[in-house]
Design goal:
Strand 2 and strand 3 form a beta hairpin. It is globular, with a radius of gyration of 21 Å. It is of the alpha+beta class. The protein is built from 11 helices and 15 strands. It is 29% helix and 30% strand.
């Protein structure tokens, strides 16, 4: 017999030493990111824990994944209350333990108490879910970083990337473990600038996010003189590095090609430290393909507790898939 227990937070051993494991989930929860109610379910069979499923509840604007235009503006006032299995800031959804149809049905039944619509965000295509609508999610660009990465590139690509790096030669780059508290306001301001440029607005991180995750992070900081003009937040271990957030001063970004400089320096860190994989995070796919990334497919699953609405949702599922412009 299965029972469900609500936990105040993910267990301390959730996902082991994974960079986006328990310490990250707990830090994100402490940051109290607006718009998200975080939770965690433990599934037990005959009193023994068999699965842990983190979730969050939010009102998702129906136009979130749509390209800019008239239709996006027209649908701007419509939002769906959804209980998601997964995490707002993790591109890949993860459940620890058993993912059988029986376990997932128990999770679904509990989540329907929180919202009329449930979703599994960023999972693979093989979840044993019943009566769900599966849509394509944002692919995750992952680069296999060999020590010979630069030498293995085609000459034309290597030359082009070095040319991009030269544009930032007059700037000063620093790599720091953690984040100096004095830089928190500047980092958050640069994040806001970059976030405002994005067509997809899924979350709005407060300054508390950068404060709470500082101890888990490595930062590439970019200075023009004494002014901070860019940053790249990284989280990783010996096997994989995650690119979490980038922020830039858009008065400087084009001239110095800041985005490229911050991304390429993450590759150099992985080569130096022997980290085999670099997860670049979603969006900006053209450049990441150019670097040689593999695109890891993800899927989102949706199910409404009302069968009629669920059938209608299936016909309108294209609204919940990324637009062609977002996959470029």
């Amino acid at each position: 017999m299965l029972t469900i227990e609500h936990l105040p937070d993910v267990p301390e051993d959730f996902l082991g030493d994974h960079p986006e494991g328990a310490a990250f989930y707990r830090a994100y929860a402490r940051a109290r990111v607006p718009g998200f109610d975080l939770g965690c379910l433990r599934v037990c069979r005959d009193g023994r824990s068999v699965a842990v499923a983190p979730f969050f509840v939010m009102k998702l604007p129906i136009n979130t994944m749509m390209p800019p235009g008239i239709l996006k503006r027209m649908l701007g006032g419509i939002a769906l209350r959804i209980a998601f299995v997964g995490h707002p800031s993790a591109d890949v959804g993860r459940i620890q333990g058993e993912c059988s149809a029986e376990v997932l049905e128990a999770v679904n039944a509990e989540l329907f108490k929180h919202a009329p619509l449930i979703s599994y965000k960023g999972f693979d295509g093989d979840l044993p879910l019943r009566n769900v609508n599966r849509v394509i999610g944002l692919p995750v660009p992952v680069l296999n970083v060999a020590p010979s990465y630069w030498a293995d590139l085609k000459h034309k690509v290597r030359t082009d990337l070095k040319r991009k790096l030269k544009a930032s030669a007059s700037l000063r780059f620093e790599e720091v473990t953690g984040l100096p508290p004095a830089l928190l306001p500047q980092v958050h301001a640069l994040y806001r600038q970059t976030c405002d440029q994005s067509d997809i607005q899924f979350e709005q991180l407060p300054v508390g996010y950068f404060q709470e995750t500082a101890a888990l992070s490595r930062y590439i900081l970019c200075f023009d003189g004494d002014a901070l003009v860019g940053f790249h937040q990284l989280m990783g271990n010996d096997q994989v590095m995650y690119c979490k957030y980038i922020g830039m001063d858009y008065a400087k970004s084009h001239e110095h090609k800041l985005y490229f400089a911050l991304m390429l320096r993450a590759i150099d860190i992985c080569i130096r430290d022997g980290v085999a994989q670099l997860d670049f995070g979603v969006t900006s796919y053209a450049f990441k393909r150019y670097l040689g990334c593999d695109m890891v497919d993800t899927f989102n699953y949706f199910r409404h507790r009302n069968s009629l609405v669920n059938a209608i949702l299936k016909r309108a599922s294209f609204l919940l898939e990324p637009s062609e412009s977002e996959l470029l």
